[in-house]
Each structure stands twice: as C-alpha cells, then as structure tokens.
Amino acid sequence: MKLIVGLGNPGDKYTYTRHNIGFMVVEKYVKDVLPLMPSLKAWKKDKKFFCLLCKLNNCIVIKPQTYMNQSGSAVKSVANFYKIKIEEIWVVHDDIDLPTGKIKIRKGGGSAGHNGIESIINQLGNPDFTRFRLGIGKGKLDLHHNTDKNLHRREIEKFVLSPFKDTEGGDIKKLVKKTNEALKMAIEKGIETVMNRFN
C-alpha cells in the first residue's frame, strides 16, 4: 500500500496558489484514476487523520487540512493507522528552488526550508520518504526583475502564497499532467524507474 500526499493549504483563498500545487496534482490524479462521478465523491473528510482522504485500489491519497506547517500530523496518523512503511510514502510538493514546470524526484534528504516537508520529517522521525518536487519559480513576484540573491523569508512566504500568473498557466498545466504520469508509472513500475525517466 502506497501513501500519496499532496501538500497545500485548505481554504478557497489558497486554491490556485503556488504552495497548493501538491493539492492540484493529487486532485487530478484521483480524477484520472476514477470515473468522473465517483472521483467527485471520493474525498472523505477524516477528522482523526486531519485530512481529506481518498482510498484507491493500490494507494491512499491524502490532502492534509492542518495548514502547511503542520502537515506531518496527517501523514503520521494515516501512515501509522494503515501501517505504511516510510519507503511507501510519496509527498508531492512545491519547490521554490526549481524553475517553473520542472519536476525532480528524490528519496530522503533535508527539508530545504519547506515547512510542510520539515513537519513531515519531524513527525515521522525519518527523512527517507520520496519527494516529488515541483518547480514553482525562483521566488520572484516581478518576473521582469532579474535577481539571484537570496530572498527574505517574508518575501518567500508572499511568493509561495501568490497565484500563478496567466503566462505560467501552460507550464503549470503540463507540470500537473507530467507529475500524474510519474505517479502512475511509479505505481506500475516502481520509484527507481520513474526517477530514471523524469529526473
């Protein structure tokens, strides 16, 4: 049994923000796997797990509802209840260090300053889960202003909670589609095959 975790923040005001790309991907994944009507009813709010949860034949898909910096509570509670091993946990999340539209898959490592990943590491006490890192841009709200300097934390928070620009729409649509292909391939052929194919 696999646990696929899409990271994001609950609430309508966050729906199309960069930080919610994880939610976007797993929602599309469930729609692709299930027929339309069942997919609309597939998500169940589970208060004891702090998440929206969808059970599929070969995996459990969740969207933590605790806000990003406490995502680990949902991941830990679901993993413990269903006895899912650390290597079977896949987390889909935004990555400010990757260009918009880029995907990178890796096992383990640090949080790189991502609050959701940091929370999961702390709650599980183990960093060896797989991350599907999705590029949301380099943290520049003004895309015409070219700078590679490190942004202040406040600027980063403002950026990740900003919506994607119209000019980025095509890249994001392709990214969501590509990540879903990666998830399906990982289920069918294993994570190593997917890492070789997409990285």
TrEMBL record:
Positions that bind tRNA: Y14, Y67, N69, N115
Superkingdom classification of source: Bacteria
GO molecular function, one term: peptidyl-tRNA hydrolase activity
Single biological process term from Gene Ontology: protein quality control for misfolded or incompletely synthesized proteins
Major localization class: cytoplasm
Matches recorded under Pfam families: Pept_tRNA_hydro
Record site feature (Stabilizes the basic form of H active site to accept a proton), residues: D94
Record's keyword annotation contains Transcription: no
GO cellular component, as recorded: cytoplasm
UniProt-listed Enzyme Commission number(s): 3.1.1.29
Keywords linked to the UniProt accession: Cytoplasm, Hydrolase, RNA-binding, tRNA-binding
Functional summary from the UniProt entry: Hydrolyzes ribosome-free peptidyl-tRNAs (with 1 or more amino acids incorporated), which drop off the ribosome during protein synthesis, or as a result of ribosome stalling. Catalyzes the release of premature peptidyl moieties from peptidyl-tRNA molecules trapped in stalled 50S ribosomal subunits, and thus maintains levels of free tRNAs and 50S ribosomes.
Subunit structure: Monomer.
Entries under HAMAP family matching the protein: Pept_tRNA_hydro_bact
Descriptive protein name: Peptidyl-tRNA hydrolase
Organism name: Candidatus Gottesmanbacteria bacterium CG1_02_37_22
